[in-house]
Amino acid sequence: MNMQLTTSDQGDVTASINGAFDAKSCAQHKNQFENICHQAASKLVIVNLAHVDFLDASGIGALVFMFKRINAAGGRLIIVGAQQQPRDLLVMLRVNHIITMLDTLPSQPNSVDTLPSIAA
């Protein structure tokens, strides 16, 4: 797994993840996940899964970990672009009922709050 972080002028963070989001990669990136939670606790955190080809329970655990920490601090976590196996697993485990999942981001950043989840 490779993760690229970008921060907007407003302090919102986008974590673009590439490759397998599994136990091995979660262990390697644990400090980055914690830093994301601290850095953008009261902001919007977008996790872009468009280039994730495999997701397991550890990856879901990392997402839920970040969601809880960011949500408790008044922020928001959104999953964007999940495809095929990652999307199927997130929907099957009903993660999409807790964490907002979008196919793509709207062009207007403020309109993220008005979009529905892709709940199946």
List keywords for this structure.
five-stranded mixed β-sheet, single chain, globular, alpha/beta, 4 helices
Give an account of the 3D structure.
With 120 residues, the chain is an alpha/beta fold. It has a single domain (2-110), classed as STAS domain (Transcription Regulator spoIIAA, 2-Layer Sandwich). It contains four helices and five strands, in the order ββααβαβαβ. The chain has helices at residues 23-28, 30-39, 57-72, 84-92, and strands spanning 2-7, 13-21, 44-55, 76-80, 100-102. Strands 1-2-3-4-5 form a five-stranded mixed beta sheet, with helices on both faces. Strand 1 (2-7) and strand 2 (13-21) form a beta hairpin. Helix 2 (30-39) runs parallel beside helix 3. The longest helix has 16 residues, at 57-72. The chain is globular. Mean pLDDT is 88; it is low at 115-120.
Q: Give the neighbour order of strands across the main sheet.
A: 1-2-3-4-5
Overall 3D form:
globular
What's the β-strand tally? Answer: 5
Indicate the CATH topology.
Transcription Regulator spoIIAA
Radius of gyration: 13 Å
- Stretches where pLDDT is under 50 for at least 5 consecutive residues are 115-120
CATH 2nd-level architecture: 2-Layer Sandwich
Specify the oligomeric state: single chain
CATH superfamily: STAS domain
The fraction of residues assigned to DSSP E strands is 25-35%
Mean pLDDT: 88
Structural class: alpha/beta
Largest sheet: 5 strands, mixed
Helix proportion: 25-40%
Count the helices. How many?
4
